Backbone:
């Protein structure tokens, strides 16, 4: 069986603001967040084949298992089962985003797999929407990959126009992976109030993330004094932080000065 390979970008996700409002009966947390997406991310390629296989390449491949636990593998298997189709596909994930870093990671990859396979296998996109929340709280937002307000566990979505499409952004990660569950586990349980205008908002996971990885404070301080940086914040459960810049030149100047021990990505918001 042969067909031209299809490629999908698994766009890096950021949380422009993230308010934690309380703990849910299911153990997860109620959030109010604004999701936004970069034009860059991981790349997933798919070709029809007899069996389901996944190869992981790219700068962060060594940090990831390419077996059945990989979210790309899980997304493909779940979609095939839901659609009652054979799960023959050869997938290649070019892992460019750091793993466990608060910018979607596996969620964006799983969502990219759902979009790609919906098209490759010619199945109803509603099936992908049904599966997405079962793969992770962030997967529905990543499936859309459009600016959206997330409530509930982060999977109750409303599209919004935050007026930030085209904004230059610099992402920095101190190359220290951070477990999402561990960061939520360190939240102090204090509801600091609802999310109104995201610019005036906060990331309530910053304090517990900084307690685990103090280097986050150094990244935020470094970004905060870059010329042209208009808003500096941590994304998700960290440790990636971002700055929105007033020009691509200012972003590129900051990117060129980024300490080499930190990972960085100069991008633009979708
Ligand atoms: C914090 C956020 C913000 O966008 O992003 P990341 O830091 O992962 O990028 C998300 O809520 C992460 O979503 P996702 O990465 O899909 O998390 P899941 O796999 O569903 O859950 C991983 C673990 O995080 C905790 N969790 C997740 C979501 C939520 N609303 N409350 C939680 O307490 C739970 O301990 C759960 O076991
Ligand atoms: N394709 C994938 N990319 C990244 N992480 C994955 C993938 N598949 C499974 N994982 C697992 O998911 C975890 C990252 O999830 P999470 O902490 O939610 O990431 P992030 O904080 O970047 O959103 C990793 O520890 C990794 O073991």
Residues:
């Amino acid at each position: 069986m042969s067909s031209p390979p299809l490629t999908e970008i698994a766009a890096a996700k950021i949380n422009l603001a993230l308010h934690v409002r309380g703990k849910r009966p299911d153990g997860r947390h109620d959030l109010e967040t604004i999701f936004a997406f970069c034009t860059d991310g991981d790349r997933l390629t798919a070709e029809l084949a007899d069996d389901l296989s996944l190869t992981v390449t790219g700068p962060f491949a060594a940090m990831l298992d390419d077996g059945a636990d990989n979210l790309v593998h899980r997304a493909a298997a779940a979609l095939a089962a839901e659609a009652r189709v054979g799960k023959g596909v050869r997938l290649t994930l070019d892992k460019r985003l750091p793993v466990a870093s608060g910018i979607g990671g596996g969620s964006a990859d799983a969502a990219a797999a759902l979009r790609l396979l919906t098209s490759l296998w010619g199945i109803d996109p509603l099936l992908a929407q049904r599966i997405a929340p079962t793969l992770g709280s962030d997967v529905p937002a990543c499936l859309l990959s459009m600016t959206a307000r997330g409530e509930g566990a982060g999977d109750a979505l409303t599209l919004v126009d935050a007026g930030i499409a085209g904004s230059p952004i610099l992402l920095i990660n101190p190359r220290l992976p951070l477990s999402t569950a561990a960061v939520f586990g360190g939240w102090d349980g204090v509801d600091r109030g609802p999310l109104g205008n995201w610019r005036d908002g906060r990331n309530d996971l910053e304090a517990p993330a900084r307690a685990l990885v103090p280097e986050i404070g150094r990244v935020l301080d470094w970004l905060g004094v870059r010329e042209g940086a208009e808003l500096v914040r941590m994304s998700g459960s960290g440790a990636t932080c971002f700055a929105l810049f007033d020009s691509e030149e200012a972003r590129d100047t900051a990117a060129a000065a980024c300490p080499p021990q930190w990972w960085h990505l100069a991008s633009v918001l979708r």
Q: What stands out?
A: Strands lie at 6-23, 29-48, 52-57, 89-94, 148-151, 156-159, 168-173, 229-234, 241-245, 263-268. The CA atoms of residues 38 and 260 lie 22 Å apart. Residues 15, 18, 28-29, 31, 33, 102-104, 107, 136-138, 153-154, 180-181, 184, 236-237 surround SUD (ligand 1) (CB under 6 Å). The radius of gyration is 18 Å.
